[in-house]
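ARCHIVE RECORD
Type: protein–small molecule complex
Small molecule: H49
Source of inputs: curated submission
Record status: active
Notes field left blank by submitter.
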Amino acid sequence: MNKLKLWEEAEAYLTQYHQELETAFTDFKNRCEAVKREIDVYGTYQHTYDELMYGAKLAWRNSNRCIGRLFWERMDVIDARKATTNEEVFAYLIDHIKKATNGGKVKPMITIFQPEVIQSGASPVKIWNHQLLRYAGYETDEGIVGDPASIEFTKVCQKLGWEGKGTHFDLLPLVVQVNDQPPKWQEIPDDVVIEVPIQHPTIDIFAGREVKWYAVPIISDMRLEIGGLSYVASPFNGWYMGTEIGARNFADEDRYNFLPLVASQLGLNTKHLSTLWKDRALVELNAAVLSSYKKAGVSIVDHHTAAKQFEIFEKQEAKHGRSVTGKWAWLIPPLSPATTHIFHKPYDNTTKKPNYFYQDRFWE
Ligand code: HEM
Ligand SMILES: N=C(Nc1cccc(CNC[C@@H]2CCCN2)c1)c1cccs1
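STRUCTURE (tokenized, with ligand):
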């Protein structure tokens, strides 16, 4: 990005920042002058902590695929821009897992490392994980063990020297890279992770198998763009919506594929699709996920409540004269979508900035 483009992006963000926070006009003008000069001299600029914090929250508010945006203003923002070594990065990541887990009362949080260097496009800190907590996947002679979605990344970790136990629920190591040196990996200490045993309240739906899932989803491979600056390592978490686990991670045929087992434990006739055995199994599986998290005292939201919260978000935004953008196909939940208001209306999928974006995998 050249200096002029960067200034245009910076000015657009500073304008929104000062307008929404209703700061004094002179403060806005002085800040613009300072940033303009900084870009002119250094080819880049530094956000103040407040600009960084508000930008991360706006990026969440602008995330078209997110149903959880009602709480966009309530997020802890950790400034990790001074971290430069692998050890410092690992420490921030483990601290993030600990603080966000908060004993089960999950706190939305983001940890923001140094931005990409505008001139060279180099990124000083890279996180190779898709999520800080995720289970390994292995291809074995007896078939796939663990999470099929992790098979490729698990091989990368094994090439780096990591060895998993080979169970269906092996937490992958953290893999980070600084200044394009070779990546380093580190196991996550057991005591900072909460995992939830998944059981149905009344039926043995997994036929005695130990099934669990981790408490906190922490996305660590997206790029946070604020005012022209790209924070390529900015892991963020919320809490889970039950269907993510019960209707996708456990139900997809190319994930844990538990529906046939659950249906058979429910005594359903799986010979004909028309018996709706998949639908009955899905409901019991999702009920089991929600009741298990609740029993464990770990935050989770059901898809009906989440849709109601999103409706309040839409009304709140309208009251502030702001348009809500969204991606319909992602906002509707994968279970009983038409029972939510979202299904019955269109959404404008325009991309506003600041926002979170996909970026190329650092390990391919
Ligand atoms: C607080 C509770 C939250 C809930 C219940 C929630 C729920 C969800 C769900 C269900 C999805 C769809 C995920 C999928 O289908 O794979 C999603 C997507 C997304 N959420 Fe949220 N969210 C929450 C907080 C956050 C926070 C704190 C951020 C960032 C600061 C965020 C940013 C996003 C983004 C960027 C996506 C799209 C991801 C992609 O395109 O792969 N969400 N959210
Ligand atoms: N509840 C959450 N779920 C979530 C949010 C964003 C992205 C993801 C992972 N999405 C990718 C998966 C894999 C393909 C389709 N879904 C999960 C949150 C994760 C981080 C903050 S909220």
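CURATOR ANNOTATION: The mean pLDDT is 98.
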